[in-house]
Sequence to fold (332 residues):
Amino acid sequence: MATTAVGPCHSRLTVMTPVIRRWLAYGGKDSRPLLKAVATPINCPRRFLPKVGGTRHQETENQMVVQQEEVIYRPRQVRMDWLGMKRSWKYVLKTVRSMFSSVTENESTARLFKKDHVMYYFRNSEDLSYWYVMTDEDYGGHSWAELRQGLNEMTAMFRGYLSEKRPRDLLPTTDPLQPQPPYHGMVYLETRPFLTILDKREYMSLTGFNAVKLRLRGDGRKYDFEMVCDCGFEKRIAYVVPIYTRGGPLWQEIEIPYVKFMAKMEDGGYLLVRQRGMGYAMLENFRFKLQDGIEGPFQLEIDYIALIQNSTFPDEGTDNKDPWEPINATIG
Fold:
């Protein structure tokens, strides 16, 4: 049997199934419409099939219907975050254990029965992974810094070079009437956000204590110790206090009450006129910042950061009173 070309195709080969061949062998009549319906051209960009359903006299060889190729949807490959699942599972186990533990063994209530609590220490290299370094090099500056273990491999060494060289977009203008934008190099060491189940951000709590204790060894420069709190409505307030290091080989222990921290906007960097007490249960991170305007190398060695309870310090409030508050309005 001779084959007939179906549609504008380069190949004249057609495919017939064994069922059709058996039907033709047993005396099938008028097989041309059926052959045209099941015939499939090979190596064609599109499939041109004849229109089926009319009478023998109405059908013509030029009466074709274009069938659009089906779109193949491949399944999307999803990568499993095994590290995040492991961290989330540890948090679930920790939460369940705290529910069935006693008051003194529960981590959230055990701090009420002790005088100090170590938040961060650096006894191995894994403890450095909870911190990261930030410099003004990310927006065009020339400072650099690094974080590594100390010589005894028991402390953290934050060191680098503070540069006062301006970025290219902040170079002073030659016009004497134009204001010169102020600029100071900046480096800081900050803790990474604490993530719980399903990478949900969790806050640190300062409840149960009234002061922060630092054991460090500096180079004689002034550093800023900051604690960032999330107050909601996209407002992040940093509570800062200056640290004046001695320099030399001696360590120093610094106790800072909560009431001595000064509130400022994290983005703007300016102090708030109306000081407010910090949210003890909404603390995000700790930060050591250097921006004293002195170009040169720096080095700050940190042993630990702890929370302490000192009866000589007030438990709440702030010592930085509002100068415009009418505290003497009822006197006299």
